GCK domain-containing protein
Amino acid sequence: MGIMSSTDRKTENPKSNSRNEPDDGWLPALREPVKAFTEGGECKDLIIDYIACKNEAEEKNEDSFTKCKHVREMLDKCYDAHSDYYSPIYEDVEPVVDSMLTEIKALFPPKQGREDDDDDFVEARVCEFMVGGDCKEAFMTALQECLVDKTEDDDSSKCVRDLMMLKKCMDAHSDYYQPILGAVNSGYQLYQSLLLSKLKGGGD
């Protein structure tokens, strides 16, 4: 779920704090609602373990994607097993992803002499740009989970997680990814706003 930043950890006991704050990385207004929601589900312990693993990787300057693969897979299985509980907060992912992709595609206009450049050419240019930076692996994982392997019966928990990991990677390499970070950040903000409304009872 959320990703704890290094500035939020207590210096005297960072690991203890990371296990007690699974909601960091969300908008301030979402921290308490998300915390209450995650603590009410069956995957609470795995969520805490996953965040603790990522924090430990960050502290040791290790690759969290590789280091935390096992616990991430266990968390995915838990989400699948308890999808009735977790799926409601992921229902807004698809329109947010569509909006974000539309905004990103607008940043890659048709090449000179191609007035009717179709989606395939645009998507190819976007992918070429994304894999050219240091977030290639995070991008390919998010692409696979959110678009390629997506079916109507899937919940979107894995997509949300992978998009958040991609955003963190892009923030860390903003010199390269700056051209499209605006679209990514606006999509991230939109999702969290929709989630806040749902958790506070304003959703359907």
About this structure: Residues 1-24 have pLDDT under 50 and may be disordered.
